[in-house]
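protien #1 (seq + structre)
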Amino acid sequence: MHSAKSRGYLLGAIAAASYGLNPLFALPLYGAGVGTDSVLFYRYLLAVLLLGLLMLVQRRSFALRRRDLVPLTVMGLLFSFSSLFLFESYRYMDAGIASTILFLYPVMVAVIMAVGFRERVTPATACSILLASAGILLLYKSGDGATLNLLGVVLVLLSSLCYAIYIVGVNRSSLGELPTERLTFYSLLVGLTVYVVRLRGCADLQAVPTLPLWGCAVALALFPTVVSLVALAGAIRRIGSTPAAILGALEPVTALFFGVMVFGERLTLRIAGGVALILLAVTLIVVAGTLHLPPALRSLLGKRGGASR
């Protein structure tokens, strides 16, 4: 039991860190003039091919039950529109800021679970959400006090909402019984149709101009898509929707790491404080859900009847 939960927390962290790589691979394609729909078409198409090949090599079944068709379609569309709204927001604000605002989704997941499924928000969950939210606020607050673009904020909030509903939907539908790779493959396949339609049957599809940029397209399909989705589905099954969403707070930490190491961004005291709060939030939710604690402390942290059911 505890081994399964520990694996779930690890998978949640991997999913978060992988998804945080979106700007690293998407922005070079934008810089070369490739449009949002084309970038996402390549992302989803290559991800479907990579995951399908992996399933063939591992001799995994592609079979679906009739009752899974509708929830799979809904989940695939939700994830695809979450990507679309997020990538469109990159055009109206700094990608790092958009990637941090996105992580209001743990709060949305907790609210959906509490209101829609009467799941009790434990002290550990509430404290983790507050700490993570405070850390994210420190990360995305602009140093010069500039006002954020309203359309960009609305787009990234819509992305966050779609992602939150996706997480809850996977946990609360018949899809929870599907193998992780099969669930991910069909979610991506359904999501791909969104960009086929938006590109008018690929008539408006733009070519990737250089070999290094093809490398970005493949990496975008592999890490923030295949690895992130497979790991997220595995995490949701083992620890539940809310802890998996809270672990998503590691994503802006990933963005920060590559910003400092790759693009030479400055690590300020405010940003370091935000990272520390996020890591504390993640540590709290993991400790509350996996360790054997004294009864008084376990009760205080809300292990009983909590969101990890």
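ok now protien #2
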Amino acid sequence: MTAPTPPPAERILALDALRGIAVIGIVGMNVLAFAMPGPAYYNPQSFGSTSPPDYWVWLASFVFIEDKFRTLFAMLFGAGCLILIERSGAHPWRAHYARMIVLFAIGLVHATLLASNDVLRAYALAGLALPLLAGLSARALVTVSLGLLGVHVFLGMALLGPSLAAWVQDRQGSEMLLWAERQFGRDPAVIAALLEQGREAFSERVLRRTVGIPAQMTALVAALPLNLSAIALGMGLWRGGMLKGEWRTFRLQRVAGLGALLALPGLLLLAGALVSTGFPAALAGPVALLLSAPFDMALAVAYAALAMAFLGGPGAVPARLAAAGRLSLTNYLMTSVMLAAIFASWGLGLFGEVTRWQAFALGLVPVAGMLVWSPLWVAKVGQGPFERLWRALSRGLSYTPRA
């Protein structure tokens, strides 16, 4: 006898709106991955104009956008997984693993065809560890999250620390400094090669990305501690009641204020260190990937608290954001389609042709698109097309015929 299917729970408007904010915020950094060579993602001096508007856009992005919304997206992924597990029937883990397998497949196709910086594969891999976490209390989940964040910083410094030490000791020409320059700096040969690669034909891209899948797996595994940290935090905030909408507004405001107080001074100090030293590659990498990570997480929590405090009531803005959030997977994927249409060689071909502020402005195109089409789709159809596909394939994979 099969367990009865639990009745669908009422949607939490503020949580859906928060998902909408997260998928919109991710565009602010994804647009750079489509528009410029990889090092420019971390270092504004790697490529493009260094005019005042470009520096201001970099500063605003570094302080308020970069990795904050990726962290928020992962937190909401963790909360969403826990919601589905809690509402599942007799075989919650079979259904969960089916969802992760299908999500990984969707992410793999997405990364091969469109977005090299796809996050779905990373979330799916991290999601495989959720059986170890789902039974923990809210406090334990937050503790695990902080521990994994520490592991990420420690392991990352083991990799990037030698180049940072070489820069501090002014060992010009050392192999570690040259390596950092290739990854995060202004190496002319690397930039030229990346520009040529970014202008490749669609068939060339698919072949290159397909051949590179094993190397991609190495990078995904290396990112597991950071992604699992954010996922565990989202699970903890759901179990603790914050993302369920159970906290009072005053408490949410205090959390938002504390998160901002912890995050903003640290981020501004790191930004000041980069500007004052001229954005050396050996410092830009650790700052973007490691040293800013605790502050990114604190500000992501602040954003979540503000959304839960103020986006749960009636109004056009919460409703439109909530519609975008209900279609978060579809909007995430369609954003890549629109950005590829703007920057890829099979679209308008603007890769490497715009400055940082121009790229950021063009990123508003998919944002406007999702805010316009999401409410219309939700009103007429309901579930998004890729959400429907994910659900259908997962059900098929986890289906067990009766004896």
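The chain is about 75% helix and 0% strand.
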